[in-house]
Design brief:
317 residues; 8 helices; six-stranded mixed beta sheet; 13 strands; Immunoglobulin-like
Length: 317
């Protein structure tokens, strides 16, 4: 996806800004200490150069003792600065997490992300996959859960890492401050396709987010042509409907991603492929060839059936 950013140094959220401050202080303290070590090293080499053993002068000895005391003071002050900064940053991140706003749940799977937007009104709740949309300047609480192995939720532009541990619910708070598209990644080795377990966070204006959410709340569109209608029939009669949900149809599977509006997403297979008809065809025809070990079986389809199902799915926007 073009325009996607993935860097801890490119700050786009309140929490990442605090983390960047900590990183800056740490680099500054360590940089000063490293420079002083080099200065002392050069000084020691020049001082000893050309002098026979045992020719130390008392004045130089006193100077060296004073330098060592100064070095100890610098180390103590540096550690003190790091401790105070770490404490202050932790408090700021904790305070930012106490703000209320949007709530959603992310469930990690091998190897994709199930995203559920929650609301006290069930009619305003919906489910999507591998793509999170957030309004800018709105605090977000994300409940994290894993049904299989340990995963780690990481969007470096917005916050640090948070593990998802089977049998233990965790959460993470985000507060995006800049519009953009940011790449997230599972940061804990979780199996053979760990590297292909990505997702995207789309931060947009409140108006654009409301428009996107309104669209996501709608059921799938009815096919508008005979090819798409045949594709819908193939989807319902093949194994696809056993694993996937398409709201507004009889497909109500819970093992794979919700496909109600899959054609509106930017990627396929948790960031493995960019979304387009060609990649969609390749993924349906041979998912194991593209992402070995994933839980999507290969469904034998003749070319006509494959093209019809692609036409149907490509209309789910």
């Amino acid at each position: 996806m073009r325009g996607v950013e993935h860097s801890v140094l490119d700050v786009a959220g309140v929490q990442s800004d605090h983390i960047h401050t900590m990183w800056t202080v740490l680099m500054g303290v360590c940089g000063v200490m490293y420079l002083l070590v080099l200065i002392f090293l050069v000084w020691g080499l020049m001082r000893a150069r050309g002098k026979p053993p045992g020719s130390a002068v008392a004045a130089e000895t006193r100077l060296m003792s004073a330098a060592l005391r100064g070095w100890i003071a610098v180390v103590v002050l540096g550690l003190f600065a790091l401790t105070i900064t770490s404490y202050a940053i932790d408090r700021e991140i904790f305070s930012a997490g106490e703000q209320k706003g949007l709530s959603l749940e992310v469930i990690s799977q091998q190897w994709w992300w199930d995203v559920k937007y929650q609301s006290d009104d069930p009619s305003l709740s919906f489910e999507t996959a591998n793509e999170i949309h957030l309004p800018v300047n709105v605090p977000v609480e994300i409940s994290l859960r894993s049904p299989d192995v340990i995963h780690s939720f990481w969007v470096p532009n917005l916050h640090g890492k948070q593990d998802l541990i089977p049998g233990r619910d965790t959460n993470i708070h985000l507060h995006p401050t800049r519009i953009g598209v940011f790449r997230g990644q599972c940061a804990e080795f979780c199996g053979t396709q760990h590297a292909n377990m990505a997702f995207y966070v789309v931060v947009e204006s409140q108006q654009d987010f409301n428009r996107w959410r309104t669209g996501q709340l709608q059921v799938a569109r009815d096919p508008t042509n005979s090819t798409a209608r045949r594709g819908r029939d193939v989807f319902m009669t093949a194994a696809c409907a056993l694993c996937h949900t398409i709201r507004g149809t009889d497909a109500a599977g819970v093992y794979g991603p919700d496909l109600t509006h899959m054609a509106s997403r930017a990627s396929l297979a948790a960031g493995t492929l960019s979304y387009n008809r060609g990649n969609l065809a390749a993924w349906i025809a041979d998912p194991q060839g593209i992402k070995p070990g994933n839980n999507m079986p290969k469904v034998e389809l003749d070319p006509t059936a494959l093209q019809s199902i692609i036409t149907y799915l490509d209309g789910l926007k």
